[in-house]
């Protein structure tokens, strides 16, 4: 594996390898030795041209736990804000000796462009590009679902996952559809027609406009943030109406299977797509997703930069 740009680039075997490696790294991190020497001497750059808290900090923590040097590069206050091109930025990072660049960008395809170019020789990890994909988020979501619901199985065969909300603007939804179905899960998208992308009927999923009709059958409910910042027109009448039909509240929570879990990639709009009591309920694994994100991102960096080394081996 040279880059991680899209879930579609991963075979099922490769996806499971990342999840299994993350499981092993999580066990090591839970032990007395919190930091591994695996990537000592390597330089990893967080190139974030869009605002982020969870993803950037998670990748930084993952890199540091593997003993890599980390450079955080934000578009705000940098030459990017002065009009510097992606090419010039990449060549600058190459000159600094970056072994891997983790990129978040507002333009769909930016990570692919960086990886396909001759501007740099290091690995590229897509940390979210426009409304296209967010592969590491899908991997940590699958990791979380597998830990709770797979009952020792390797994949997610037989599980039913509902992805609810603003699918149209969600790169998380796209990556999750690709990965969860690749791992054998049944996926149902739940949203008003205005928040579903054109061509969704060709996706390997079911579509429902009635949240209540599927709530009792799902093993995991993944609520999506309403991305107001990407909306240039009205997609639903008002917040109250949206919450009534597509929000997760205590009444819908009661209808779920006893073992079903509640997920959200964050940040949450509490009171819009999810109520506070749902987000903080015993079913919620939202904070666990954040914790698991570090282990999964450690696995990604490990496999990209040191895949042949034995986990936990000293140098």
Please give a structural write-up:
- Pathway: Pyrimidine metabolism; UMP biosynthesis via de novo pathway; (S)-dihydroorotate from bicarbonate: step 2/3.
- It is a single chain.
- The protein is built from 11 helices and 9 strands.
- With 315 residues, it is an alpha/beta fold.
- It has 2 domains: 140 residues, Aspartate/ornithine carbamoyltransferase (Rossmann fold), CATH 3.40.50; 156 residues, Aspartate/ornithine carbamoyltransferase (Rossmann fold, 3-Layer(aba) Sandwich).
- It has a 5-stranded parallel beta sheet with strand order 7-6-5-8-9.
- The longest helix is centred in the C-terminal third of the chain and has 21 residues.
- 45% of the residues are buried.
Largest sheet: 5 strands, parallel
CATH class of the largest domain: Alpha Beta
Q: Helical stretch count?
A: 11
Distance between the termini: 23 Å
In CATH, the homologous superfamily of the largest domain goes by the name Aspartate/ornithine carbamoyltransferase
Please, what is the average pLDDT? Answer: 90
Strand content: 5-15%
Low-confidence stretches: none
**Percent range of helical residues:** 25-40%
Summing up helix and strand content along with how strands pair, one would put the structural category as: alpha/beta
C-alpha geometry: globular
Taken together, the total number of domains comes to 2
Element string (H = helix, E = strand):
HEHEHEHEHEHEEHEHHEHH
User: Strand sequence of the main sheet, in spatial order?
Assistant: 7-6-5-8-9
CATH topology of the largest domain: Rossmann fold
**Total beta strands:** 9
Radius of gyration using CA atoms only: 19 Å
CATH architecture label name of the largest domain: 3-Layer(aba) Sandwich
